[in-house]
Amino acid sequence: MAAPSHPALAHQFDDLPQQYDAASTGMWAFLLTEIMFFGGLFVAYTVYRQAYLPGFTEASQHLDVFLGTLNTAILIGSSLAMAMAVHAAQTDQQQHLRRFLWLTILLGAIFLGIKGYEYWHKYHENLIPGSHFDYHGAHREAVQLFLVFYFVMTGMHALHMIIGIGLLAVLVILASRGRFSATYHTPIETIGLYWHFVDIIWIFLYPLLYLIGHHS
Amino acid sequence: MNEYIVSQHTYYRVFGALLILTLLTWGVSYIPFSPGWSVVIALTIAICKGSLVVLFFMHVRYSNQRIWVFVGAGIFWLVLLIALTLSDYLTRSYTLLAF
Asked: Which residue of A55, A85, B10, B46 pairs with A100 in a disulfide if CB–CB is 3.0 to 4.6 A?
């Protein structure tokens, strides 16, 4: 009689390593579609920045560089916490696993809080694109266009983070029920891949949105 | 599991490198290069940071060839998207729209 299989092993797979391989490959395939999604936004941004360079530079100066840099550090920290959670799962340290998952969620939430504060600040300065947009510089329309890119790109990034925090919350619940071990922690790995990918998007958003207007 | 366990020490070093590169790109942005050069410098640093995340945090350095093919395909199509689009827009002699 065959040895009893792991409860997490789906019947279409021979063993857990094969299931892990399929799951991580699937997540990478999803991330490729995400690269093309954000890639389109980045290319559109590049085309319009090249067309309206003075306006984009001027608009970038209205972003808070300090908060942008702080948020970059916080998000990198959350990625480290996520990587440490994977390590804790691989080495079967249940308490560390839960703590690092919570830390990842906490740092992600702080990032979103700072992002929300920046949005609130833009709202009070009447710099939200649309009928209440109130800006009297030489490059009014180009500044508004930059801010459309700013809100769409950071907004889509924030949406991905909110989804990520939801997924991490599910992982915390499953981890507290003892579902993960050194032999099975595929969901920690694959959601970790997603979380790190969202971090990479921000790593490119930060210089393109916050830093390009600095010197001039 | 047939996966490689990356040491905590490696994670901390990658984290340190990412923080240093973040401070570097912030500091460099105060140096008045031309707009073109400042973007090239900023993106070079961003690509370095992204590569560190992909190779170590996402374990690609320790992954099999299939994962490398997936990552390579993502980069290839992104480069194609950027290069073909910009080969059009950057070589036009007129501006896009007159605001």
From this structure: A85
